[in-house]
């Protein structure tokens, strides 16, 4: 009773933070299961089965909101392209997970918000001030610290992770665009159901019989992914991105903890230092975006 009363009286921003933390924990669990499965089976098969198992879960989550009504998009081809980019990105990330530690992959993927900021200029026509450009530069410097070009041979898996980061940044920019014309639940439905349909064109060609325990892992993987994405969608509906984004970096903590407990991997000092640079730069960029938006809102109110 007290817990329920506390939840009701909680500020939306605090609920958004807690939902983001929960989403990152679910994503960390999802990635650990993905890494375990992809070492035994082809990545396209794991991705296909994950999406197939997620479809009934997502439909159940969205059942009270009438999924058929939510599926109607004002830009269906844009939603389909966004979903296709996400599917390819996830496939590349799974490949990277096979050969690299979870913390190493996520440290590279953490630069996504900064890369999305840079891409928003040519793709969305947004203006980015020198402070956010500086944050972008520091974030990319953090990636260079992780990769250490010139000091070590860059492993191909790191390049795969970089390619996944680029695609994920494009996906984020497109999500920001479709968010202006479609509801978040519509985008969520498209990326799960649309992704499953697209993967039906590829996944069956990689079919291998799974062990019974691996079927359980596939269902758990799908449930964790669907629940995590839904929590993040709800969090962004309750709190501004400047509040939510810093908490998304807790996924790095989950990656380190799970990577050590399950796979015995610990990040080296370069990875920790580079990841810290990316987190600081990304959080600052999100704060500057909030400041810019607040100023624009005040200016609009004064002019009105």
From TrEMBL:
- What cellular component terms from Gene Ontology apply here? membrane
Q: What is the protein named?
A: DMT family transporter
Keywords on record = Membrane, Transmembrane, Transmembrane helix
Name the Gene3D superfamilies on file: 1.10.3730.20
Residue ranges of the TM segments: 46-63, 84-101, 107-125, 132-151, 157-175, 187-207, 213-232, 239-263, 269-287
- Its source organism is Marinimicrococcus flavescens
Instruction: Quote the InterPro entries the UniProt record gives.
Output: EamA_dom, EmrE-like
Indicate the segments forming the EamA domain, all copies: 15-147, 157-281
Report which superkingdom the organism of origin falls in. Bacteria
**High-level lineage:** Bacteria, Pseudomonadati, Pseudomonadota, Alphaproteobacteria, Geminicoccales
């Amino acid at each position: 009773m007290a817990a329920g009363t506390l939840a009701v009286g909680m500020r939306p921003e605090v609920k958004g933070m807690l939902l983001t933390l929960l989403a990152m924990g679910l994503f960390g669990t999802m990635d650990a299961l993905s890494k375990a499965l992809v070492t035994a089976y082809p990545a396209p098969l794991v991705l296909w089965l994950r999406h197939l198992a997620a479809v009934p879960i997502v439909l159940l989550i969205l059942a009270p909101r009438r999924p058929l009504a939510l599926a109607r998009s004002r830009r269906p081809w844009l939603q389909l392209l966004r979903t296709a980019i996400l599917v390819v990105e996830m496939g590349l990330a799974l490949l990277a997970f096979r050969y690299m530690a979870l913390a190493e992959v996520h440290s590279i993927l953490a630069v996504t918000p900064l890369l999305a900021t840079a891409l928003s200029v040519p793709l969305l026509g947004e203006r980015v001030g020198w402070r956010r450009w500086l944050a972008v530069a520091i974030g990319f410097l953090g990636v260079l610290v992780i990769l250490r070009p010139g000091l070590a041979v860059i492993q191909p898996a790191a390049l795969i992770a970089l390619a996944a980061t680029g695609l994920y940044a494009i996906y984020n920019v497109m999500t920001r665009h479709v968010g202006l014309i479609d509801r978040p639940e519509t985008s969520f439905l498209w990326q799960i159901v649309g992704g499953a349909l697209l993967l039906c064109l590829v996944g069956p060609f990689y079919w291998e019989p799974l062990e019974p325990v691996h079927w359980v892992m596939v269902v758990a993987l799908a449930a964790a992914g669907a629940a995590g994405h839904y929590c993040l969608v709800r969090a962004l509906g309750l709190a501004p991105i400047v509040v939510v984004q810093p908490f998304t970096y807790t996924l790095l903590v989950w990656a380190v903890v799970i990577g050590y407990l399950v796979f015995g991997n610990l990040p080296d000092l370069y990875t920790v230092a580079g990841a810290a640079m990316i987190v600081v730069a990304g959080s600052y960029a999100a704060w500057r975006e909030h400041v810019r938006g607040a100023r624009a809102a005040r200016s609009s109110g004064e002019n009105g």
